[in-house]
Amino acid sequence: MNPFTEKAIQIIKSIPQGKVMTYGQIAKVAGSPRGARQVVRVLHSMSANYNLPWHRVINAKGEIVIADEESAYSQKAMLKEEGVKFLANGRVDLKESRYDLNVAEEDWI
DNA sequence: AATTTGACATATA
DNA sequence: CTATATGCCAAAT
């Protein structure tokens, strides 16, 4: 694994309940500002193995754009359970629920 | 090894 | 707001 993937996993695991992060943010913090898609891959591929809270990862608009409707529905339900605020549009309130994370490099791994 | 593929982002019109 | 285009990089095939 490259550092990016490792960091991405750590970051995702560190997202607290009631908070969400965007793909772009995770990628950026993990070291690749344009690696949003890798975050997607990491999630989908590693979620089963690493027990990642994939449901706390959404796109930059706060909208759930997941291909699987069941997954999207579950995600929304879980987020609501955790206290994430949803707007009337069905979007997550990023202003309130986005988890801004600053990495100190050595703290990870 | 080479090519395709993604739970996407950002820019531009 | 929608639509189209382009970039991006690791995992999967």
TrEMBL record:
Keywords: DNA damage, Methyltransferase, Transferase
Signal peptide span: none
CDD domains: ATase
Pfam name, any one: DNA_binding_1
InterPro entries in the record: ATL_DNA_repair, MethylDNA_cys_MeTrfase_DNA-bd, MethylDNA_cys_MeTrfase_DNAb, WH-like_DNA-bd_sf
A single MF term (Gene Ontology): methyltransferase activity
GO BP: any one term: DNA repair
Residue ranges of every copy of the Methylated-DNA-[protein]-cysteine S-methyltransferase DNA binding domain listed in the record: 3-84
PANTHER family in UniProt: 6-O-METHYLGUANINE DNA METHYLTRANSFERASE (PTHR42942), ALKYLTRANSFERASE-LIKE PROTEIN 1 (PTHR42942:SF1)
UniProt name for this protein: Methylated-DNA-protein-cysteine methyltransferase related protein
